[in-house]
C-alpha cells in the first residue's frame, strides 16, 4: 500500500509498461459501449442475442476494472498542491461532464421541456434539468462525475486515515445494500473500493503486470481458470429475486470485481506481449477512451433506430439481436473516434480537448505532471 504515500516514479521502460494500461482501457470501454448497445438493441427488437451473454459475463468486472485503472496514477498528483490537483483531477472531468451534459440534453430537449408552456417555461425546465445534473450524475456520464468525486475524497482522507482502515471501510460500503439510496451515494458505495484499490496497490499491480509478461503459460492457465469460475458464478441462479445469480451476492460481488479487474490486467499484458492488429486496435481505443465514452451515445442511438426502422435484423430473432447489437457496438466505438479525428485542430476541438481557458494551473505545472490513466483525450 506504499503507493498511497509515495508517488510512482517512472522507469526508463515506462512507455512499454504503460501499453498494457491502454489495452486494458480499450477493452473496458468497448465492454461498456457493448453493454449499453446490446441492452438497448435487445429492448428495441424485443429479444436477446449472443452478446447478452457476453455482457452478463463481463458485468462483475467491467466497471470495477475501469475504476481500478483510473486510480493507478493518482499517486503521482495526490500530494501536489490543491490547485494543480484540482486542475488534473476535478476541473478536467468537470469540464467534460458539464459540456456533454449540455450536448446530450440538447438531443433530448423535447422530452426535457415537455409540458412546459412558453419559451420562458421551456428555458426554466431545461435550466432545472441542468442544475439537477450537477447534483445527480446524468445518464451515461456518471462515470466522469464519480472520477472527480473519488479523487477529491481520496486526497482528503489518504493522509488522515490509515490505508488499511480506509480500504476496509470502502469494502464494507461495497457490500452494504445501497440500491435504495440516491444514485450518487449508491454508485459511490459500490465503486469506490476499486478506485481506492488501484491507488493503494498501484506498485503491486505494476509488479503483477511485469510478472505476467514474464510467465506467459502460468498466466494463460490462470486466466482460463478465472474464466470458468466467472462463468459458473455469473450464470448460476440463486432463486432470490433481488440477487438472481451467485455473482450478485455480497462478498462474492466484491471478490469477482477485484479478481476480474486483475484478470483484465493479465489479459492486457498477454495481448501486449503477443502484439498484432487486435492489440493495436485495443490500445488505440484505450488512448482515446474518453472520446468513445463521451461520444458513443448518439451513433449508438442512431444505428439502433435505423436497424429497427428498416427491419435490418436477421430473421432468426436471437441471431438478429446479436448481430444488430454487434453492429451498433461497432458504430458506437468507431464513429466517435472518426469524428474526433476530423475535428482535431479545428474550432470543434473543444469537444474532446479541454481548452487552455478552462485550466486553473500554470502551464509549466500542468506539463510537468504525468497524464492520468483515464480522462485524457
Automatic annotation (TrEMBL):
Acyltransferase found in the keyword field: yes
Keyword list, A-Z: Acyltransferase, Cell membrane, Membrane, Transferase, Transmembrane, Transmembrane helix
Membrane topology recorded in Swiss-Prot or TrEMBL: Multi-pass membrane protein
Transmembrane segments: 90-114, 134-154, 161-180, 192-209, 221-243, 249-270, 290-307, 319-339
One protein family per Pfam: Acyl_transf_3
Domain of life: Bacteria
Subcellular localization(s) per the UniProt record: Cell membrane
GO MF, one annotated term: O-acetyltransferase activity
GO terms, biological process: enterobacterial common antigen biosynthetic process
All copies of domain Acyltransferase, residue ranges: 19-331
One term under GO cellular component: plasma membrane
PANTHER family assigned: INNER MEMBRANE PROTEIN YCFT, O-ACETYLTRANSFERASE WECH
Protein family (similarity comment): Belongs to the acyltransferase 3 family.
Name of the molecule in the record: Acyltransferase family protein
Amino acid at each position: 500500500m506504499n503507493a498511497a504515500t509515495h508517488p510512482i516514479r517512472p522507469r526508463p521502460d515506462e512507455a512499454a509498461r504503460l501499453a498494457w494500461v491502454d489495452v486494458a482501457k480499450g477493452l473496458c470501454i468497448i465492454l461498456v459501449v457493448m453493454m449499453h448497445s446490446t441492452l438497448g438493441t435487445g429492448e428495441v427488437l424485443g429479444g436477446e442475442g449472443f452478446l447478452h451473454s457476453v455482457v452478463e459475463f463481463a458485468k462483475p468486472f467491467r466497471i470495477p476494472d475501469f475504476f481500478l485503472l483510473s486510480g493507478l496514477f493518482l499517486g503521482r498528483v495526490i500530494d501536489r498542491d490543491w490547485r494543480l490537483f484540482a486542475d488534473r483531477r476535478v476541473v478536467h472531468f468537470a469540464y467534460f461532464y458539464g459540456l456533454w451534459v449540455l450536448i446530450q440534453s440538447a438531443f433530448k430537449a423535447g422530452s426535457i421541456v415537455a409540458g412546459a408552456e412558453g419559451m420562458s417555461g421551456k428555458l426554466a425546465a431545461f435550466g432545472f434539468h441542468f442544475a439537477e445534473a450537477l447534483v445527480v450524475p446524468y445518464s451515461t456520464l456518471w462515470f466522469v462525475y464519480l472520477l472527480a468525486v473519488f479523487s477529491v475524497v481520496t486526497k482528503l482522507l489518504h493522509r488522515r486515515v490509515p490505508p488499511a482502515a480506509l480500504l476496509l471501510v470502502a469494502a464494507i460500503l461495497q457490500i452494504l445494500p445501497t440500491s435504495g439510496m440516491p444514485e450518487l451515494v449508491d454508485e459511490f458505495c459500490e465503486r469506490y473500493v476499486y478506485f481506492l484499490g488501484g491507488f493503494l496497490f498501484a506498485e503491486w499491480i505494476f509488479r503483477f503486470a511485469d510478472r505476467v509478461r514474464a510467465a506467459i503459460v502460468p498466466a494463460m492457465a490462470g486466466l482460463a481458470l478465472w474464466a470458468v469460475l466467472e462463468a459458473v458464478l455469473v450464470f448460476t441462479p440463486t432463486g432470490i429475486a433481488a440477487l438472481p445469480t451467485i455473482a450478485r451476492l455480497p462478498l462474492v460481488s466484491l471478490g469477482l470485481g477485484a479478481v476480474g479487474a486483475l484478470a483484465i490486467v493479465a489479459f492486457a499484458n498477454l495481448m501486449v506481449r503477443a502484439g498484432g492488429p487486435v492489440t493495436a486496435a485495443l490500445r488505440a481505443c484505450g488512448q482515446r477512451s474518453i472520446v468513445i465514452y463521451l461520444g458513443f451515445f448518439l451513433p449508438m442511438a442512431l444505428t439502433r433506430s435505423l436497424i429497427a426502422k428498416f427491419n435490418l435484423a436477421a430473421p432468426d430473432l436471437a441471431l438478429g439481436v446479436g448481430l444488430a447489437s454487434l453492429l451498433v457496438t461497432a458504430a458506437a466505438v468507431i464513429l466517435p473516434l472518426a469524428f474526433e479525428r476530423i475535428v482535431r485542430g479545428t474550432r470543434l476541438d473543444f469537444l474532446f480537448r479541454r481548452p487552455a481557458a478552462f485550466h486553473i494551473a500554470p502551464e509549466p505545472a500542468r506539463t510537468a505532471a504525468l497524464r492520468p490513466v483515464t480522462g485524457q483525450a
